[in-house]
Amino acid sequence: MRMRPTLSWTPTEDLPPGTTDLEPVADALSTGGVLVLSGAGISTESGIPGYRGEGGSLSRHTPMTYQDFTASAQARRRYWARSHLGWRTFGRARPNAGHRAVAAFGRHDLLFGVITQNVDGLHQAAGSEDVVELHGSLARVVCLACGAFSPRRELAQRLEEANPGFEPVAAGINPDGDADLTDAQVADFRVVPCTICGGILKPDVVFFGEAVPPRRVEHCRELVRESASLLVLGSSLTVMSGLRFVRQAAQAGKPVLIVNREPTRGDRHAFTRVALPLGAALTTVADRLGIAVDGQAAVRE
Which residue, 6, 39, 63, 289, has fewest beta-carbon neighbours within 10 Å? Predict the structure, then answer.
């Protein structure tokens, strides 16, 4: 029987309570060399729901797995119909105060780098540079047969032409860009193949049940090794792809600081967990450091 990926986590030990004290975060940033690891929680204020917590998409939606996507034409039809509709909303999302604060910290040379578990591109849209997209990006598409990459906007246009009048009403949008639609709403959706070889197209994202490319993991491990501290923003750290970097930093004696309203799987490794909304918390930290957070790229000092 195929094992399903870990989608939820329940604390099995007493964890320290969250705090509202932002001083440790401000102190770490003022020292510099901070490596940011962000999760879905940093994008919720941009209108993209998180996976977990109150209102999280996992309460109503099981994400597509790599195994299901590759094994079933019906699963691919369902995925692309839902993702095509979700992309229309997902693609209109804009960076929020949390993304802009991270970009501002980077412009002031306080960060060693940014690793994001998100596939929405909002860190880059806010002005962050050299972002490592741990789980890939919805803005790219890859052919599973020939390996060719293409922009998502091109696929969106092809799907529009193949499915004229496709305008179902979705029950919600999920962090992976997938819209909640019924089987009846997607039954007649037409999937298009790779224009080069006719192969199966997949978004260039790491599905649940799929491994992050080893070279990408090693690059992230190197960032952890060379950074001064790790700042986790908006991640429950439920899946190992992010938790492993928290464990690595803690084992190396580097401070781990978490800003997440709910307990996380990494709390026992952390120096502190700040239980505040991310946008407000990071804006407050930026203000304490004398850094302006706005929608425009600032000039380096």
Answer: 6
Return d(Cα 210, Cα 263) in angstroms, integer: 25
| Tokens (6 digits) for 154 | 């091109």
Residues marked as catalytic = 135
pLDDT in tens, the chain (301 residues): 343 444 555 666 677 789 999 999 999 999 999 999 999 999 999 988 765 445 444 444 567 899 999 999 999 999 999 899 888 777 788 999 999 999 999 999 999 999 999 999 999 999 999 999 999 999 999 999 999 999 999 999 999 999 998 887 665 666 666 677 878 888 899 999 999 999 999 999 999 889 999 999 999 999 999 999 999 999 999 989 999 999 999 999 999 999 999 999 999 999 999 999 999 999 999 999 999 997 444 332 3
The residues, ordered by sequence, that sit 6+ positions from 79 with a Cβ below 8 Å of its Cβ are: 64, 69, 178
Tokens of 269: 């490794």
C-alpha 282/C-alpha 21 separation (Å) is 12
Sheet holding 229-233, edge to edge: 131-133, 111-116, 34-38, 229-233, 256-259, 272-274
Query: What distance in Å separates the CA atoms of residue 153 and residue 159, rounded to the nearest whole number?
Result: 10
